[in-house]
Amino acid sequence: MSAATRPAGTAGFLGSGLGIALFSSAVFGMSGSFGKALLEAGWTPGSAVAARLTGAALILAIPAVLALRGRWHQLKDNWLTIALFGLIGVAACQLFFFNAVARLSVGVALLLEYLAPVLIVLWLWLASRRRPRILTIAGTLLSLGGLVLVLDLTGSVKVDFIGVLWGMAAAVCLAIYFFITAKENDTLPPIVLASCGLMVGAAVMWLVAVTGLLPMAFTVADARLGPWVAPWWVSLAGLVIMSTVLSYVAGVMAARALGSKVASFVSLTEVLFAVVWAWLLLGELPGTIQLLGGVLIVAGVVLVRVDELRAARTEVVLAKMPDGGVPAAVSGPQGTGSGVSAELDHANDVEPVP
Questions:
Q1: Collapsing DSSP states into helix, strand and coil, what is residue 224?
Q2: What is the DSSP letter of 9?
Q3: Do residues 30 and 238 touch, judged by C-beta distance below 8 A?
Q4: Contact call for residues 226 and 283 (beta carbons, < 8 A)
Q5: What are 90-108's pLDDT values in tens digits?
Q6: C-alpha dist (Å) from residue 45 to 54, 152, 276
Q7: Which of 43, 127, 286, 341 lies deepest, with the highest CB count within 10 Å?
């Protein structure tokens, strides 16, 4: 059987992009565990985030410079997108998430952050005064019900209220991130946006620290990862190299192979990976009620995104329907369906760092 006639299901796991996407989610999910190990060793959330952003920005600067050769004007053309991405999508989002991790379990903090798609639905509903479709409403209600279970208000172990507020603040930043990148054009390579955004985020963190508004504390004390006690730089290296650099690069590769829509769906597995890593490395595991709530939140987000994908496909087909002919979006230039996929796979390839 030739490569042209081989069924898609027989393609290599990594070659399909799915394996790379899962790897990206797995290493993304380790960030909470590495970060909490540093926090428990004596670092502050601000110092952990600043070190993470600085290290990752320096490493990613090399491929970013190579991608910009002869196209330096792209930085000027996209300076606002880069600034907002670095300030809100990188610096603020990570700082709020790490503050939540300092008071909550990693799994609960990440579940709160992943309410961002639901917040987007609610905001668009209020702003446009147009009721969402049934599937979106069902997904929103499902996620809100999951949030109630995650908070476990009637449980014996009370959830830290301040930690919940930090987690919700991270969700708001993540929602704003999606609004920002939805308007990003195709002229800026994803690796450049990632690198420059990390640089902006790192600069903001250090600037705020110099003013004294953000507490900064570093320590060379050993950090505990589950049953292991390792030097502090092991956790920091894992946070920078694995949970930032490798996850970004793998995320870009996966988005290019799968398309941004499919890659964003696969990224939901980050919640599962984060819970597993927190269990293995920190001995943390949300309660049964909280795990059930997490399942409902993820299921609700999936419903919202499925509805979004269906609506986008319908709009593209209708917009490109020629009078009395076959839909151009379906047939594509060669009758291969490339028109629809080209519209749906918008070059929003950079996923946020949690």
A1: strand
A2: G
A3: yes
A4: yes
A5: 889 888 988 898 888 887 8
A6: 14, 25, 22
A7: 43
